[in-house]
Amino acid sequence: MAYLKRKIPQFNATSSADIAFILLLFFLLTGSLDPKSGIYRRLSPAASEAKLKKKTDIENRNLVTFSIDENNQIWMKDSPVALPEIRDIAKTFIANPNDLDFLPEKTPADIYGLGIVPVSNKAVIHLEFSRNTAYQTYISVLGELTAAYDDLRSELAFDKFHQPFNDLTEEQKIALREVYPQQISEKELSGKEVGDE
User: Hey, how many other C-beta atoms are within 10 angstroms of the C-beta on 29?
Assistant: First the structure.
């Protein structure tokens, strides 16, 4: 008597590849890569020696310096400063709302969409830090300084355009950035220099 041999059915892998591809697409499209997880910094263009010399001749009233030492203590001149105070100090320095003679001078400028307004284009914030400063402290101080500019621009946006800064047109945003141009310089210091003026 003859036995019939049964063939073992083969596994069709075509549908498995399709499923794997669909899962890959699903995770790529629904997953998020946070693009804002860094510090946005625009480097200044290379300057000639004459321009650099001119930039270093900043009047004392137009410059405020914050220093962070190796113990993560924040200083302004010879006085310690708490992190929450930095934003308000920077806002007062940049805006000079009462036009005080020891704070940065403002120059009138004709800005498209705003007319002739006083511009704080001479105010420079200088951030000095030690090589041993904790990265988190450095980022926190830099964040407060940047937030001071953002707050001033937002306040001006509500005052002039009656809406938040982020809802403005690109031309309006450029105009407000001209009124409060962000000018933060940074310098790494040796241990002996921090806190000395």
Answer: 7
For tokens 């498209």, name the residue: 112
CA distance from start to end of the chain: 108
Total tally of structural domains belonging to the chain: 1
* Contact predicate 68/138, CB 8 Å: yes
Q: For the segment 19-41, what is each residue's pLDDT rounded down to a tens digit?
A: 888 888 888 888 776 666 556 66
Residue 129 lies in a domain: yes
Q: What angle do CA 188, 189, 191 make, to 5 degrees?
A: 140
> Helices 135-161 and 83-95 meet at what angle, rounded to 10?
40
Distance of CA 89 to the CA centre of its chain: 17
Per the structure, the complete domain to which residue 162 belongs is given by: 59-189
Model pLDDT for residues 81-103, shown as the tens digit of each residue: 999 999 999 999 999 888 888 88
**Residue 133 is assigned to a structural domain of this protein:** yes
Predicted model pTM: 0.68
